[in-house]
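Q: How do we represent a protein-ligand complex in a form that can be generated token by token?
A: Start from the inputs.
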Amino acid sequence: MWLLFHRNAKTKVVRGGESFVETCPECGKRARFDEVEVSESFGVFFVDLIDDKERMFRCSACGDVFDRREPAKPAPAAPPAKSARELERERAAEEARRFAAEVRRREVAEAKANRIEDELAELKKRLGR
Ligand SMILES: [Zn+2]
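Then emit the structure tokens for the protein with zinc ion bound:
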């Protein structure tokens, strides 16, 4: 990501600094960019933006100075690690759900069996008459 830092800022090429050819986002020319030190203060507004660790690059064609920053990457949204207690609680909840389902299944089966028995009893009664 390129950020236009300052037009025609007073700069000094960093000795042994980085140098590369890139298409300038301002003048559109394929030009050499040299790592520079900005040797001028730009007033209160810019002071906060200038960081010793930030490197500026100057287009050799138009002289514009850019701050080449890596786009801020959002921290990977890692799922929060579950504590042993949470895992245990989840396991217990899952077991309870399974147990409840099993109970329900048995109830239904029993009800069905009872109904069949009732029907059989009813049938026997009728046949017995
Ligand atoms: Zn340029």
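DSSP finds two helices and six strands in the chain. The first helix runs from residue 44 to 47.
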